[in-house]
């Protein structure tokens, strides 16, 4: 399990263990919060194509799917 502090999530770097559309390296470009200030989801931006993916930020904790940093 990847340890994630929600406040350090913006601009963090991630590597997908299974590439998404042949894209492997991502940056958290935006974090969405609800009225109570809790993170609801985040935008991952592919480094090469600049394509945006919206995911639940808790998915990044799954070390079977994501690695912290660029591997």
Describe the 3D structure.
Helices cover 0% and strands 48% of the residues. With 71 residues, the chain is an all-beta fold. It has a five-stranded antiparallel beta sheet, with no helix packed on it. The chain is globular, with a radius of gyration of 11 Å. The mean pLDDT is 92.
Summarize it.
The chain is an all-beta fold and 71 residues long. The chain is built from no helices and 5 strands.
Give the SSE map.
Layout: E1 13-20, E2 23-33, E3 39-46, E4 52-55, E5 66-68
Antiparallel strand pairs: 1-2, 1-5, 2-3, 3-4
Structural class: mainly beta
Number of helices: 0
- Unreliable segments of 5+ consecutive residues: none
Task: Give the topology string: H per helix, E per strand.
Answer: EEEEE
Q: How many E strands?
A: 5
Helix content: under 10%
Cα-atom radius of gyration: 11 Å
Through-space gap between termini: 16 Å
Largest sheet, strands/sense/barrel: 5 strands, antiparallel
Mean pLDDT: 92
